[in-house]
Amino acid sequence: MEEGRSAIAWGCFNWQTMHAFLLRTEPEFPRSPPLSRIPTQNDQRKPAVWYSFPLDLPPRIYYHEEAFLAYSKLMLLLRQYMSIRDNFAPLSDASASFENAKLLFYQLLDWAKALHSSLILSLNCLPMVFNLHLTFHQIVVELFRPFATRADDPSQFACGAMNASLKQIERILYVQQVQFAGPPLCGSNAGPIHSLMMSLFDKRSETEHPHQETDSLLLLCTTIIRKIARYYPSIGLILHSILAYGKKNFASLPDEVEAIYRELDATLTGTSAPEEIPGQYPIDLKLSITRPEEANLEAALKATYELRIHDNT
């Protein structure tokens, strides 16, 4: 019973921490982490018992426990960073804010180096390991997004870190598509894909004739989130708003992606943000840094209706 309560407490803490990080707000729960230890932390572990078949895989519950422990430690680092970040107005002290972000980045690298051997990224990873690394790279991308457009040295550092993590998100999605026909259909996987889609929209805007690889990857991202939305209806609203953002700001979508957008548009006509999804959820991740009230889901829905009028639909 105590183990279950601890898991619930840390699960809520982890969710609220990541949620507040993306919204760039203070967490709804108290700042301090749960008083109970992270489940499995400091346990006297026995060596993993190996199944006779398949010979190369230990019990999968072992991976779940190690992944949860690593994820909770990752959220502890993120909460520590946020407690300092919230003392600054957005970019009011750009130098101090960047140094704080850079410090977290190096702590994240140390976290990755200290991962249990079962959680090291490889082609033979279980889905939960891929998910852990997707979250890690999304944190890096959104950590440095506020500094990526500045014309100075921090911008070069931020862009380099962001691009490296975006490339890793691409690779993980491709591997998951081949190994498991896509990532697990859990709501948290929509976040890293959202971050990647923003960069793909930027790539499409840089050339008159978008590269086929960019469009194929954008279609893969859209298809994955569309599948997730079957189980989490609010994700459908988010995907609809992301595509509407891309259509409005970058003129066009690939034909297959446009078809999915039209399907969502017909299904969600007149739909407002449901209560279980905060209206503040950021759709435009760039605008959310400086004017979050104009970048959220509610604002995106209004912009979608305007777009529909312009399209005469």
**How would you spell out the order of helices and strands?**
HHHHHHHHHHHH
Oligomer: single chain
The number of helical runs is 12
The proportion of strand residues reads under 5%
Count of beta strands:
0
Report the biggest beta sheet as strand number plus sense, adding barrel if it closes: none
Q: In one word, what is the shape?
A: globular
Structure description:
The protein has 313 residues and is mainly α. It has twelve helices and no strands. The protein has helices at residues 2-23, 60-85, 94-113, 127-144, 153-180, 190-205, 212-229, 233-250, 255-268, 287-290, 292-295, 297-310. The N and C termini lie far apart (55 Å).
Brief summary:
With 313 residues, the chain is mainly alpha-helical.
